[in-house]
TrEMBL record:
It holds the Pfam family BioY. Belongs to the BioY family. The chain crosses the membrane at residues 6-32, 53-72, 78-103, 110-131, 151-171. It is a multi-pass membrane protein. InterPro entries: BioY. It comes from the Bacteria. Its main location: membrane. This is Biotin transporter.
Amino acid sequence: METRDIVYIALFAAIVAALALFPPIWLPVIGVPITAQSMGAMLAGGVLGAKRGSLALALFVLLVALGLPLLSGGRGGFGVFFGPTAGYIVGWIVAAFVIGYLTERFWNRLNIFTAAAICIFGGVVVLYAIGVPWSAAVAKVSVTQALTGSAPFIPGDILKAIIASLVIVTVKRSYPLLGNRSAA
């Protein structure tokens, strides 16, 4: 791994942390906030690729576990990983990997539509496949109930995926970080 890769990984971990500055919107009863940080996983995977994108989110999650208040609302610490949002937080690593992998595979045909489809798949479908069962287990409810409780977040997550896809395609055109290095 080159120094440049390490810098990109640290930069995107910082971008995810900076997305916490957007104030969380707490939905009544659910206890899970709407945040901008899930878009960070989409951006990291789509711009950096599978390996560097998932490492950026792994670094971010490690820093949160060590106690840095990097999550929206100033949350951090190991205790965060025992709450209903922990599956989503850990799922960001997987989502970044999946988005990065698919972006690398479709790089030559990447446009706004393929980027949006990739971000929706990795950043919504895959993320919910990890987060919903975790929330169900923590809340001691069925997966169906947890999915129903998560449904209000889906439109916002799709909007974040569209915004991320616009950024990914713009970065591809102006300063491609993947391209020929996608296998690196």
